[in-house]
Amino acid sequence: xxxxxxxxxxxNEFIRNPSWRGISVAYAIFxxxxxxxxxxVLALSGAMIGYxxxxxxxxxxxxxxxxxxxxxxxxxxxxxxxxxxxxxxxAMGPYLHLPIPRPALVRFFSFAALFHLHNLLPLxxxxxFWIVNLALDYPAFTSLSWLAATVAVLGLSNYLVIxxxxxxxxxxxxxxxxxxxxxxxxxxxxxxxWGYTNALSSGVFDSLLGPGGPVLALALLAATCLLFxxxxxLLKDHLHDEASSEKGSTARSQSLLDRLxxxxxxxxxxxxxxxxxxxxxxxxxxxxxxxxxSAAGLINFILLTRSSSDSVVxxxxxxxxxxxxxxxxxxxxxxxxxxLMFGWESLYFDGHLARPVHFRHLLxxxxxxxxxxxxxxALVCLPFLLIFASELLVTYSVFLLYNIGFxxxxxxxxxxxNRKRLYIAPSSFFNQQGTSLHHLxxxxxxxxxxxxxxxxxxxxxxxxxxxxxxxxxxxxxWVRLLAHRxxxxxxxxxxxxxxxx
Length: 501
Fold this sequence. Notes:
By secondary structure, this protein is an all-alpha fold. The protein has helices at 2-15, 25-56, 62-84, 89-92, 102-112, 117-135, 140-170, 172-192, 196-207, 213-237, 251-261, 265-279, 281-310, 315-338, 349-354, 359-388, 393-415, 437-441, 443-456, 460-473, 475-499. It folds into 2 domains: 2-237, no CATH class; 251-499, no CATH class. The two termini are 25 Å apart. 30% of the residues are buried.
């Protein structure tokens, strides 16, 4: 009875979610068609991948070729989970004050986490692949062992992400060290072409097709059950984990904020925004991750560019490297923090409506904060550029101007579309609470414009630099237009912040 009621509550929460309100019929149809398109692409890929492999090599064993790359695919899926999958803690919050046994509550939401899109979408690929290539050509017990092992690995990945997320709340440094070391080893294996990852993948998944396949599949399922138990234990221990606001800044930083607040209304609002960012865990961790990502990403950018230059690589691929890394290295804070700009203060957004806060001052404060973050990140990467790849300095400078002038204004525009309440106390590690599909889609036009200019014309970098400089000079115009838009949609934003969970 308890589990049935919880299941009914989850269904009602899904269909009554405030984020569905205000969605037009055309947008809803677009989302449905997009989901069906991805499902169809995955299903056709799973069914037709054998034909694609044999068209390149008629003697190739399709199953063993796929087994060789499965581990790399699961690792890529695991990294995607780290970015987008949430823990069940948020969903359990509304039930903690009720007389419900905590173990039953934890077990239900831990098991419900299996029905995440990151588990269901891969099955849209694996099930057609299994039907076409294994179910008809291998004994039933062997083919079922392979499928069961694949599902078990998806479950292991699911619960491992939840455990890492829970442990990172109290031991974030340890998670960063272990995660960074693992990613470094995998990247080194890829760059040096040692092939250890592919060899390990072949050893595990090819064994499922042999006599010991059922035993290995049962071992993986047992490991999934054990990790499920560990997840329940960690969830029970972290039920009431809420990071309290850390107060007590150093005297020097407080003095700088006081000076900033003395510069007028815009300075005061900037000081409040900075205090919000450094005193709450989620925005503060985004700030630090932007700095670390810029330094690590620049090293990756340099290595990719040099390895591509040494080999015969199409010019379009090199341009893609320049566009992707050149954009993200100086806009890490803008993309991650700027998209949720009004969501950070969603819990007190009504205060902006009640107080005599001019929207132009508010938007100037936010725009200046985003614009300043771009040269700060550029200064972090500048020593690496000067020492290892001075030839990339022009590209880096072009995208710096583009991000300062154009990307910051666009991100503030997309931030006015936020309708979900954002909780800033919990950790930001792999926490996507409060985000929506438009946060991912918003990056596409920002990357598409440089791609079109740099691929279609020979003056792409010059156009980006001049355009970014002109957009920066037109900042007062953007602020005036954004203030007008915010004035029109402020009540819808406030209603969404109040009603969403």
